[in-house]
Each structure stands twice: as C-alpha cells, then as structure tokens.
Fold this protein.
Amino acid sequence: MMVLKLFGIIFFCGLLPPSQEVLSGLSCAVSPQAMQNVLSDAIIHNGLIHQHLQGLVVPNIMGEGSQLNSPTSITDLHLIKVRVPRLSVVLLPGIGVQLTIGAKLQLRGNCLVGLLSELIDILVEVNITANIKCTNFESGTFQVVTEDCLCILGAIKIKVLSGLLTLSVNELVLRQLTATLPALLCPVVDIVMNLVNIHLLSTLNAVIPVGTAGTIHYQLASIPYTSGKFLGLDLDGVVKQVGGSTIPHDSSPSALPPLMDRLLLLVMRQSFLNAVLSLLLQLPPQTFPCTPEVFSGASRLREAVRTIAPAGCSACSGTSPLSIKLVLRGNPLILLEENKASVKLSVLIQLFSNHLDGSILNFLLLKADLALNVRVSIVGGRLVLQLALGSTSLSLESSDVGISNISTLKPHCSSLLVETFMPVINGALSMGIPLPKVLRIPLVNVDFQIKAGLILFLV
Ligand SMILES: *[C@@H]1O[C@H](CO)[C@@H](O)[C@H](O)[C@H]1NC(C)=O
Ligand SMILES: *[C@@H]1O[C@H](CO)[C@@H](O)[C@H](O)[C@H]1NC(C)=O
C-alpha cells in the first residue's frame, strides 16, 4: 500500500510540466560583495536603520541587593545615539542572505543605587545577525522574512557621574540587555529589510520607454535564489509596441556562467534581443531621388541599369528622373555565437520613375539579404548595438522593363545601402536598449562577452 502511494505521487509529479514556462530575457548574478554594498547603502548610508532605531526605549533594569551590594534600578533607559559602522553579507545556498549588522548603541537613563540617583550612560556593542529569506512570490514581487535573528553583545562601557559603580552593575546590565535587546532590535531589522525590499524591487520591476517606439517592461520572473557565490535573479522583459501589442520572445532561464571576481553579471538572451531589435527597427520606407547629392554612386547605378536593360526598352534610355525606395522586409534576426554577433536583415530596393500621368514605372525590384556585423557598447545604462555591412546577396523580385540579369548591380547596391540605409539603421539603434538598474548597481567599466545565444555583461 505504501509503495503504491509513493508510485502514485511520483507518477502525478511526472505529469506536471517541468517548469511553469518562466520567460527570462535577462538574468543576473549578484556577488556577495555587491549585495553588501547595496545593503550598506540602503540600510546604513541612507540612515534607514538610524531612523528606525530612534526613540528606542529599553526596559528598566532591576537588580536585587545582596550583602555586598545595594539594590540597583536603571530606569528611563533610552537610545541617545547609534553608530552602525559595519554590515556584512553571506549568501546561504537555498536559504537566502545572512546579514550581520554591527552597531554601537549609546543608552542613557537614571540609575538608582541605594539612595544615590544619577544619570547613567551605557555604551554597548552589538552584532545583529539574521537570515533574510524571500517568500510569497507573485507577479514580480515577493516578501522578505527575517529568521534566526541573534544579537551578540560585545563590550559594554558604563559611565556615571560619580564614578561609583560596582562590577556587579556591569554584569547586571550585560545580563539584562542580552535578554531584552533581541526583542527590540530584531523587529527593527525586519521592518528595515521590508522597506529595503520594496525599494530594491522597484529596480527590477520597471517599465522603461524605448524612444517613441514602445516600452520594455522588466519584471522579476521568479523568486531570487542563492548559491554560495551569488544571488540569482531572472527577469522577463516584455517588449511592447506603442499601441499595446507585445513582440513575443521565448527566452528561458539557463545556468549562469561563473561570476569570477566581478560584482555583477548580466546575461541577455538572443530571443529577447531579437524582440527588442524588431521594436527598434520599425523603419518607415525611405524614398529619395537617385541623385549624387543623396548617394555618391547615383550616376554609376543609373548607367549600370541602362546597360543591363533589354535593347527595346525606350524608357530605360530616357532622362526621366530615377527614384529609389528602400523598405525593410520582415524582422531583423540577431545571431549570437562564440565571440561573434551578427544580424541578418532583408531590404527591398525599388528603382522606379514617376510618369507625368502619376503612374510608376518599376525598373527593378530587388531583394538584398544583408549580413551585418554587430558592435556592442554600453552608453548611459543602455545597450547600444551598431551595425556594419558585412555581405550582401542580391536577388531580382520583378522588373517592368524586362531586366533579368542583375549580377553587375551588386557593388552599386552595396554602396547605396552603406551610404543611405546603414545610417538610418544605426540612427534608430543609437537610442539603445534600456537595461534595468538592477539593485542600482552602477554599470561602469562593463566588459562584454558573446557566447552562443547570450551576451554577458560583467561589472
Ligand atoms: C561583531 O562582528 C565583527 C565582525 O564580524 C567582529 O569582529 C566582532 O568581534 C563581533 N563582535 C561581537 C560582540 O561579536
Ligand atoms: C549575367 O551577366 C554577367 C555579366 O554580364 C555574366 O557574366 C553572366 O553570365 C550573366 N548570367 C546569366 C545567367 O546570363
């Protein structure tokens, strides 16, 4: 019966899809050092923890008298100053972030020993250690819980005006603070971490405009995970055109390459990049006269067309002005290979002339399949791709005047595209692909690596 039940469970689990179809265009590995910087900034340098420790009131400390000592009571004990010189982070695989905050608290109160009442200052060093766990993931957000919070007290210094203090007061204070501080400090860590979490989540979930073409909606695709070496984040990037339709991509998370000694690794996937490229390269048709002002090889192209025209083509030898129309056909396709990125793109090249009666004589309609080399850079937090023409393959779509052999046109068409089309393409790409400001870690001194299907950014 037991065995059957077990089989039942395994069988049932086997029927579930392997993963719930998480899309991830972009993944990040954040090093412990980077997490430490991020959390130090958010918790200490922004004064968040100071703000939430303000007004801290510590329960009264009471000591029974003994033969040697008078009864002691310390009342109205409150925080007057806090210094937080140190925060450290350890990543615990499968658990989360272990945070240690070192703090120096200065407490002041009234001390009554026997009949003598005076001000007492207590300086206590404390290390607060807690595990911060992510939980309740839902549509890009999650909550954090603080677990296993410990307060370890270090040196205590006590000052009273009279200077009269016995060793036993020291012990009493240490014992009582050890008992009461965790219940005071751990909830503060919990509140602060919840606020920090909201603050940091906003860096992962953001809608960023891509010029006027549309937007990329970055969103955390699944709950963050920790290995001993990094904190892993998978983000989806939903690419939306103005007007609302989504350009789909099917990127899925994959194992991240090693982070080495870097702070942050960003991995962008090919399919996501293709969706963004389709958004950026929605170019209107380009129409212009075939004149040397627009294109330096205009006369040579005209001459080449005239040469290949059939003998009976009267329009071909005429002097009516020739026009050119360039139209992007289909979507560009980026291909990422080891140390190499290229884009494939097709352009229709129409050579035509307008007749006085408004009709169009289509000398040639050509299709140029371009292979473009990609250069990658990061400018102002945006990934900029610049393309250069590698090779062109030309084919004839149609000709109203009976041209059939276009083999001599290739060099003319290549220089036409280099001079008139590539600047338009690169102009459209120059606005760049906005990247999320992951945990506000600045993207400076970024190195790139291109692998099969991936671009890696190392900070
Ligand atoms: C607090 O942590 C620091 C750094 O880990 C350590 O040097 C110090 O001894 C600790 N203090 C106490 C009281 O545990
Ligand atoms: C096309 O023209 C080129 C150059 O004029 C010539 O070498 C080639 O054989 C021609 N091709 C065909 C299929 O006629």
Q: What stands out?
A: The helical segments are 2-15, 32-45, 48-53, 167-204, 270-280, 298-308, 314-317, 410-429.
